[in-house]
Design brief:
single chain; 2 domains; 4 helices
Length: 71
Amino acid sequence: MLDMEKVFVDIASLNSENKLELVDKILASIYPTNKGVEAVWQEEAEERITAYSEGRVSTIDEQDILQKYSK
């Protein structure tokens, strides 16, 4: 069995980009990707970016949201 403390020490030495890549791989091993769902979300994301770029949707300032829900 792996020595989890050694594994963590090795991971701690990685840069942020490599840590995120490792997290993605770990999550993918637990929750395999559903290609159909991924395709739908990719299409949705692209539509949202296009709508924003074309001015068809408005945005809300982060501070306004935080203030609204901090009460």
